[in-house]
């Protein structure tokens, strides 16, 4: 497998037999067990991209501009996948690597959407419109992917690109403001600390008052 093909695995019989036994092949041809943290990170990046696909397919009516952006982010996540799948040091002019340019673009988008979003009075509950709920799910998936990439980086600092983790960090922030943008018309669902406890106490007090009446 060449580095430029690192975002896919040829599903021939030999490859399938190896993966059946818990072995996977990285972009440089090295074999690793599927319990390797790098494989966990790759799976989470894959999940994040698929979740953004669900946003596009089932997230309700989204502005064309946002659909185009989300499609671009899916492509970026495959770049992240390819980068992480192929250890650093592999000489292949076609191999994609995450650079500061990726991060700067995400930061610029975050700033632009944040400028259009009013400050929140409390933490935001991941829900609201269908679009916002799916975007929050995508955000959570990206956060999990970032977590697993950092775990893999701790064990493979020389062979993995730290900028891939930085990109995921900025991406989760961008997806948060996109979710808030999708809720702009109806407003965010805001966290009310201790709400269920207060409601239970009020119900208990009302019951006691009724019994005493």
UniProtKB/TrEMBL annotation:
Enzyme class: transferase
UniProt KW keywords: ATP-binding, Cobalamin biosynthesis, Nucleotide-binding, Transferase
Organism superkingdom: Bacteria
InterPro entries (alphabetical): CblAdoTrfase-like, CblAdoTrfase-like_sf, PduO-typ
Domain Cobalamin adenosyltransferase-like residue range list: 18-182
Any one GO molecular-function label of the UniProt entry: corrinoid adenosyltransferase activity
SUPFAM superfamilies: Cobalamin adenosyltransferase-like (SSF89028)
Reactions it catalyzes: 2 cob(II)alamin + reduced [electron-transfer flavoprotein] + 2 ATP = 2 adenosylcob(III)alamin + 2 triphosphate + oxidized [electron-transfer flavoprotein] + 3 H(+); 2 cob(II)yrinate a,c diamide + reduced [electron-transfer flavoprotein] + 2 ATP = 2 adenosylcob(III)yrinate a,c-diamide + 2 triphosphate + oxidized [electron-transfer flavoprotein] + 3 H(+)
Pfam families per UniProt: Cob_adeno_trans
EC number: 2.5.1.17
Statement: the UniProt record of this protein carries the keyword Transit peptide: no
Pathway annotation: Cofactor biosynthesis; adenosylcobalamin biosynthesis; adenosylcobalamin from cob(II)yrinate a,c-diamide: step 2/7
Region entry Disordered, spans: 1-20
One GO-annotated biological process of the protein: cobalamin biosynthetic process
Kinase is among the record's keywords: no
PANTHER family to which the protein is assigned, alphabetical: CORRINOID ADENOSYLTRANSFERASE (PTHR12213), CORRINOID ADENOSYLTRANSFERASE MMAB (PTHR12213:SF0)
UniProt family annotation: Belongs to the Cob(I)alamin adenosyltransferase family.
Protein's recorded name: Corrinoid adenosyltransferase
UniProt lineage: Bacteria, Bacillati, Actinomycetota, Actinomycetes, Streptosporangiales
């Amino acid at each position: 497998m060449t580095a430029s093909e690192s975002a896919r695995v040829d599903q021939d019989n030999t490859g399938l037999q190896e993966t059946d036994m818990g072995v996977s092949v990285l972009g440089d041809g090295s074999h690793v067990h599927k319990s390797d943290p790098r494989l966990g990170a790759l799976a989470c990046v894959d999940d994040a991209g698929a979740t953004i696909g669900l946003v596009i397919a089932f997230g309700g009516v989204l502005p064309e501009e946002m659909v185009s952006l989300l499609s671009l982010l899916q492509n970026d996540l495959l770049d992240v996948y390819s980068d992480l799948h192929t250890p650093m040091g592999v000489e292949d002019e076609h191999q994609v690597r995450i650079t500061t340019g990726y991060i700067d673009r995400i930061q610029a988008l975050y700033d632009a959407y944040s400028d259009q979003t009013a400050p929140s009075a409390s933490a935001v509950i991941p829900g609201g419109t269908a679009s916002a709920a799916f975007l929050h799910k995508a955000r959570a998936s990206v956060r999990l992917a970032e977590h697993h990439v950092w775990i893999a980086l701790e064990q493979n600092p020389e062979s993995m690109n730290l900028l891939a983790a930085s990109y995921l960090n900025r991406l989760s922030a961008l997806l948060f403001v996109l979710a808030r943008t999708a809720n702009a018309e109806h407003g965010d669902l805001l966290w009310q600390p201790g709400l269920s406890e207060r409601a239970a106490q009020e119900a208990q007090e009302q019951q006691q008052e009724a019994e005493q009446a």
